[in-house]
Amino acid sequence: MFPAEPADPVSESERDAPVLGSVTILVCATCRDETGSDAHPRAGSLLAQDARRAASNDAISVRTVECLGNCKRRLSAALLRDGCWSYVFGDLAPDSGADLVAGARLFSTSTDGLIPWRGRPDSLKRGLVARIPPLAFTKDVP
């Protein structure tokens, strides 16, 4: 007689949870607030901190970059995933970190490499600046 196998310590919901490690949130840390103030910390740094707090229980990477070149629609961030489309968002607020993380979660479960429209936070619907294809999706011009 064999001893009973130990119970699986991982719950069914944990086994079925999506892997989130493949999505990176890039936040422009040099973005100023709507007044253009040069005060520190900059509004972009505050957004990065808020996104890190919102992602603290997820395997989502939050990184900063010096400039995303989207100054007219300041407080900008991007969502990146290997082999998928990349997204740039603007018109964000210093407390939009939870929206970015919600978008990253949606993106991580996408099977077509796109962030689904349904369920996307309003700030990521209104604030979409660009959607950039991965190089493998591009075609040569004849």
UniProtKB/TrEMBL annotation:
It comes from the Bacteria. Pfam families: DUF1636. InterPro entries: DUF1636. This is DUF1636 domain-containing protein. It comes from Ollibium composti.
